[in-house]
Amino acid sequence: MNKLWGVYTNEMYKQFKRPAVIFLSLFIVMSGFFLPALINIVMSFSPDTVSEDKATVEAQIDYRRNENKRLVDELDKATTSNADEYYIDDLQRQLQENSRQLFLAEVNLQMELYNEPSYVMTDSFIPHALSSLSNADEEIRALNSIEESERDDSWADTLEKEKQNYSILMDVIKNKDFAAYNAYQLDGYSDLLSFMPEYELTPRVEALEWLPTIDPTGGTDGKIIYDDAMSLARYASNLKYELENNVEFSNDYINESQNILVLSEDKRIDKQHEYDILLYKINNNQVAESLQDPNIAMSKNVSVEFSNFFVSILIFLAAGSIVSSELSSGSIKMLIVAPVRRWKIHTGKFLALITLFFISLFLLCLATNIGNTVFLEFKGTPYLFVNNGEVVSIPYFIYDFIYLVVDHTLLFVLMLLAFMLSTLSRHSAVGIAVPFVLMMLTTWVNMLLMILPIGKKRWMDFIYIYNTDLSDRVFPMQKFFNLSEYIDTSQYMSHSNLPTLSFSVIYVLILCVCLFYIGFDSFTRKDIK
Amino acid sequence: MEVALRVNHVSKSFGKKKIIDDVSFELNRGEVFGFLGPNGAGKTTMIKMITGFLSVDNGKIEINGFDHHSQYEKAMASIGAIVENPELYRDLSAVENLKMYARLHDNVDHNRIQEALEMVGMQDRAREKTKKYSLGMKQRVGLAMALLHRPQVLILDEPTNGLDPAGIRELRDILKKLAHEEQVAVMVSSHQLSEMQLMCDRVGVISTGRLLSVNTMKELTLIKEHESSQRLLTPDVEKAILSLSDEWKDKVTAQAEDYIDLQINKAQINDILRVLLDQDIRVFGIQTIESTLEDAFLNITGGGLKIE
Ligand SMILES: Nc1ncnc2c1ncn2[C@@H]1O[C@H](COP(=O)(O)OP(=O)(O)OP(=O)(O)O)[C@@H](O)[C@H]1O
Ligand SMILES: [Mg+2]
Question: What's the complex ipTM?
C-alpha cells in the first residue's frame, strides 16, 4: 500500500503544479467569490431609502384635488347633456379611483408615511391595511350618500361597523400594529362563515393564526416579506387541513377552482414530512432565512452554475489527460520503471482524481458561500428532513457541500469516462473533449426532454440522462430552501417520470464500475511501446 | 559469478511481426554487458520487456532470483533503468522529479537525492524546471534517477545519446566504477561498437531479434588482432601476385593499381618480403591495416548485421 500511496501523492503533487490546474482552481474561487459582488452591483440600482418626500405627496394631493374637481364638473356636464352611458360609467370609475388615490395621499401626509423606509410601503402588511382603509372610507362615503328615505334598518349598524373598521385601521397604520391588523382580518372572516366552504375557510383562519409566529412585525422590520409569510402560512395550513381530513387539494387552473381528492398513502407520507418540517421551521424561528430575498437565492444559484463551468473544465482536463499526457510525453516511463504494479498506478491516479473532484467542489462551495454571504448577506438554512418521525437538521454548509456532490453525479461519471479514454488513447484531446461535448449535449437534451411532450417509455429508464440527476431525489426537501417554490407549488416538477432513486443509484454505480474497469483492464495489460 | 538478470528463451511479437526471437542471456554482478545491434534490432524492445513496459509473450525473466511476472515489485526493486531518452516531468525541477521517483521506492532519503545529483554533476541546476534542460542535462538527471535507489541491476538504453565527450567519459567511469567496485550488474545498449569497446566486459550482439553471439571483450580483441592485415605498396601488382604460391594467394584480400592487401600478421611480413624480393619485385612500403571491431563482428556473425 506504500507504493499506492506514493503514486497517489505524486499525482496530487503533479496536478497542483500544473499551471492549468492552478489557474482553473483560481477561476473557481474568483468567480464563486466575486460573481455575487457583480450581481449585487447590478441589483442595487434602487437604493433602500425612504419612499417619498413631503413635497411630492403634497403635490400629489394638489393634483388629485384638481383632477377630482375636473372629473366632477365633467360628470355634471355629461349627465345634464344626456351623454353616452359608457362615457358616464368611465368617468365615474375614474372619479372613484382618483378619490381613492387622493384619500391615500392624504393619509400618507397625515401619518407621515413618506418617512417610512420603502420596504414598509411595499413589502409589509401596511399596503394591505391602507387598501382596507380606503375601502372602508369608500364604504362610509357610499353609505352617507344614500338618501335618508332610502336607508334601511341595517344602515346605521353598517355605518357604525365601517366607522369602527376605519378607526381600527387608522390605529393599525399609525402604530404599525400588526397584531391588531391580524385580529381585524380574523374578525373579517367571521362574516364570511356563511359564504365560504369550510375547507377554504379553515385553512385561511389557521394561516392567520400562524402569521404572528412567523413574523410578529408583519414585514415592517424588512426581514420577511409579508406576502411571502402569508404564502408560507397558507401552504402550511393547507397541508395541515389535508392531513387532518385525509384529502388533497388540487388546483384546477382551467376552472379556477380547487378540487378535493382523497389523499393517497405515499403522498400522505410526503405531506406529513413537509408539514413536520414547516412546523419545525416556524417554531424554531428559521423562516426568515428560508424566506430571504429570492434574488439572493438566485445569485447563489447563478454563482454556483457559472463557477461550475470551471469545475467541469478542471475535472475533464485533469482526468482526460492523466494517463494520455504521460504516454505522449513519455514521463510514464518513470512510473513504469519503478517497482510498482500497474494496477497500483491506475488506482493511485483514480484516487487522485476523486480527491481533485472533491477539492474542486469544496472550493466551489466555499467560494460561492463566502461570496454570497459577504456581498449579499446570504444566509443558508440547515437542511431538514424527517427520520422516524423526528425532524433532523443538517448544518447548512455540510448540506450544501453534500448537495453539490450529489448534484455532480453526471460530472463524476463523465470524469470516469475521461479517465478511461485517457488510458485508451494517447491523445489527451479525446479524453478532454468527448466528456465535455457529452456534458453539453446532456444539458441540451435535458432541456428538450422538458419541452417536448415525449411520453415516458420503460426503456428510457436505462438512458443515463434519467439517472444521473439525483439531487432532487436524494434531497426531496430542498424545495424548502428557497421561497419561489412555495409560491406556486404547481411549478414543482413532479419526478414521477424518473426511475426510483435506488434504481438510479445502482445504475450509476454499475456505469462507474464499467468505465473504471475498461480503463483498468486496458492499462494493466497495455504494452507501452 | 552471481547472476543478476536471467533472460530465458524470451520472445515478443508486435502483431504478427516477431521482434524478439527466443533470446537468452545472463547478466552477472560486477560486469558491464554491452547489448549491441543496428537500428531496429530489438534492443529497446528487449529492455522494455525487462523494465515492465512490454509484456513477455514467451519465456521467463528473472531478476535477483525474483520472477519478473509473479514477484514483479520485488524483481523490479533492484532495477534502475533509462529507456530510450529519459522523460522528466517538464513543470517540475530535477529535485522534484527525483523526489517523486523516491516515493516509489523504499529507503531513499533526501541525502541520497543530493548524492545522486552530485554523482552526475547536476547539483547546481537541480532546482530549475526540467523543460529548460538540454538533452545531455536530461540524460544526466535520468541517470541520477536510475541510480537513486542503489539498484543492483542497471539498464541503460543508448545512454551516451546527447552527452558531450566529457560526459561520455564520466559516464563510462561511473559505470565501470559501479560494476567493478560496487558489484552492480550493468547492461548498456548501443549501436556504436567503439563505445562498447571502451567500457564493456562482455558484448552480446543482437540483430533482427536474434541474439547472435555473446563474447568477452578479450575474445573480441584476439579476433581483431588475428584478423588485421598488411598492405604492400608496389608498382608491380600483377607480377607480384603471379609470383606468390597458392598458400599466399589465399591470403590476398584486396588489390589495386599500386597495392595488395594480405591478411597476415606482423610475424609473417618477413616471409612474404623474402618471396617478393627474390623475384625482383619492387616494394615501396608496408602498412599495417588495423581491423576494426566492426570487422570482427562481421566475421563472427558471418555478415549477419543487417538493418531490417
Ligand atoms: N511501436 C511499435 N510498433 C510496431 N513495431 C515496433 C514498434 N516499436 C518498434 N517496433 C519494431 O520493433 C523492432 C525493434 O525495434 P527496437 O526499438 O527494439 O530497435 P532498437 O534495437 O532499439 O533500435 P535503435 O538502435 O534504432 O534504437 C523494429 O523492427 C521496429 O520496427
Ligand atoms: Mg532503441
Answer: 0.82
